[in-house]
Specification:
There is one protein chain. The protein is 0% helix and 26% strand. The chain contains no helices and seven strands. The protein has strands spanning 6-7, 16-22, 25-34, 39-45, 51-57, 77-80, 99-102. The strands form two sheets. It has a four-stranded antiparallel β-sheet, with no helix packed on it. A three-stranded antiparallel β-sheet has the order 1-7-6, with no helix packed on it. A hairpin with a 4-residue loop joins strand 3 (25-34) and strand 4. It is extended.
Length: 158
Amino acid sequence: MSLRDKLIVDTSDMPNYVVLPIGAENFTIELFYRERYDNFYFNLYDSDDNPLITGEKLVYGVPLWNINDANLPSERIVPLDEAGVESTVSIDNFQISVFLYFDDLDPSIEDPSTADVDENDTDNSDLLDDDNGSSLIEDEPSDDDNEYALPEDWRDEQ
């Protein structure tokens, strides 16, 4: 499950057009692939099909537009691999492990790439558990009286 919302693109049929509804306006992103360089590029059009950005290369970790311009969408979209394995955008990983993510990560959720190590949670297996007892996620099994749970010495009975 992704931490961010992502834009799904059909890479089997290029160039591909994706309508991006932001606010009251619909923008169109045209994605195309250059086999010679193994790079993806995009054009951005406003609702009247006027070009706003043309021939821009998709660069891993860099927002598609990072310009303060009132004509551009307010949402930022960034090519990323949330698992942190990839570092480039190519035909081998785009829409497989690298996706176009909306830069809308909820600030209350830790970003795994910049998360502080919790000394009480040695494997950092959960992002929401702060080990102070207020979490819904438990690191250790609870000591409740579950009548369906196996007894601690269940192996001795076999």
